[in-house]
User: What shape does this take?
Amino acid sequence: MKLQFFNTLGRQKQVFEAIAPHKAGMYTCGQTVYDYPHIGNMRTYLFEDFLKRILMYNSYEVTHIMNITDVGHLVSDADEGEDKMEKGSARTGKSVWEIADYYTKAFIDDVKLLNIIPATKYTKATDYIKEQIDMIKCLEDKGFTYITSDGVYFDTSKLSDYGKLAQIDVEGLEEGKRIEFSAEKRNKTDFALWKFSPKDTKRQMEWKSPWGIGFPGWHIECSAMSRKFLGDTFDIHCGGIDHIPIHHTNEIAQSEACTGKPFAHYWLHGAFLEEDDGKMSKSKGEFLCLKTLTDKGYSPLDYRYMCLGTHYRKRLLFSWDVLDSAKNSFNRLKQNIIRMKEENAPGKSGEQDRVNLYKSDFLESVNDDLNMPQALAVTWEVVRNTGISDKNKLELIYDFDRVLGLELKKFVDESRRGQISWAEFEIPDAPIKQGIPSEVLELINKRAEAKAAKNFKLADELRNKVRELGYVIIDKKGGVEVKEIKN
Ligand code: AMP
Ligand code: ZN
Assistant: This one.
C-alpha cells in the first residue's frame, strides 16, 4: 500500500507525494518551555515520531524542524494576558532565560527517555527574531497589517481563504459575536504579529523593531523558522488538534500572504490525551509528567507502548489501569522475544511466504494513516506464529521496531550480556490470598470484567473502591494479587 495520511486540509486520506523524490520536509510545533512537558504533550511528540519513523521506513530522508517557544506565547490565544514565559519566571523566581534553558533541557530529556528520534534541528524562537521581523515587514509591504496601541496586527479580512484549515465560518463569527476581542482589532480573527512592551514596565525579553520595542506574536516564529529551514512550501506540518483553529490557521495566513505560495501540503493533527475531567492541561495546576510515571515504577517505554495502542486521531483517556495493561503486555512481548534463539534452525515449510506476508501486513498497517494498533497486532501475530523459526521472527520484529521504537534489540542484547535479569519480567501466577472479604472479592471480579470490556474508567473506579476498603490490587500475569494495606 502506498503511504497515505489523513490530511486535515481537506479532511480526507491522501496518498503522500513528496515535493522532492525520496525526501520529506517536516515541521512540528514544539514545546513552550515555561514548565515541564506533561504526558499529553509527549503523546503528540510520540505520534510525530511514529510518523517520522514511517517515512524513514519508506526510505524517505527526513528533515525535521521543531521550534522551541521561548517567547511570546500568551496565556490567552486571543493575544491577551501574560506571556507564559514571564509567568513561569514569576512563579519560580528565575529569569526567563534561565527558565527557557532549564525546561528546554527537561523536554529534551523526555524526548530521549521515550526513544523519540531527535529533530534534525530544534529552533528557538529567540534565535530568529530578525527572520520574524523580516516576515512582518514583508506582510506590511503587501498591505496585510495594521497598527494598534498594543501591537502590529494581521488583517485576516485581506485573505480570501482565511480559515480554510479549520473550515472556520468567519462571517458567522462576525455575526455571532461570541468571541471577546479588543476594541482596536478590525476583525475577530485578526492576530498579533508584534506586541509592544508595556510603557511602564521593562520586559525581560524585548527587542527593537521598526514599529517599536516589543516581542513577536506566537504564530510568526513557526512561519519564519519553517521558511528559513524548509523553504516557502514544504511537505508535512503537525501538532495537536488544539492548534487547528488558531495557531496553524494563522501560520498558514502569514506564510501564504507573504510568499504567495502554498505553505505545507499535508497537515496531521494528533488527538488529545485526556483525564476523567477533560483534557490534560497545565493551566489546571497539577499535571502528569513522565517523571510522575517513572517515580511509580513505570518505564518511559511503557508509556510509549501505551500510546502505540490507540490511533493518533482518537482521544486517549489516561488511567493507571490502561498504563498497567500496556506495561503487562509490553513485558510479555519482552519475555517472548528474550526466549527466541538467534541460531539458525532448520527451515519450516512455507516459512518465507509467511515472513513476506507479515512484512507486507505491517507495511500496510503503518502506511494506512499510521495504524499503529494494527502494526502492534501484526507484531504479536509474528510472536505467536509457530510456522516461523525464532531467528526469522527476531529479524522481523527488529525490523518492525524501526517504526515501533521500543528498543527491543537493545533489550535483548543487554539481557544476553547479563545486564538485565529477565526474571524481573517473569511474573509468577499469583493466586488470590485467602481471607479476603467477599465484598472486596466481588469488586475485584467486577473490575476484571470491566477490564476485559476495555471499560478502563470503571475499572479504575472499582480499584479505588477496593483501596478504600483497605486492599490494593496488583496486576500479575494470569490474574491479580491482592494485598491488605497495612497502616
Ligand atoms: P504547547 O507547549 O502548549 O504548545 O503544546 C505542545 C504540543 O502538545 C502541541 O502540539 C499541543 O497541541 C500538544 N498538546 C497539548 N496538550 C495536549 C494533550 N492533552 N494531549 C495531546 N497533545 C497535547
Ligand atoms: Zn507552530
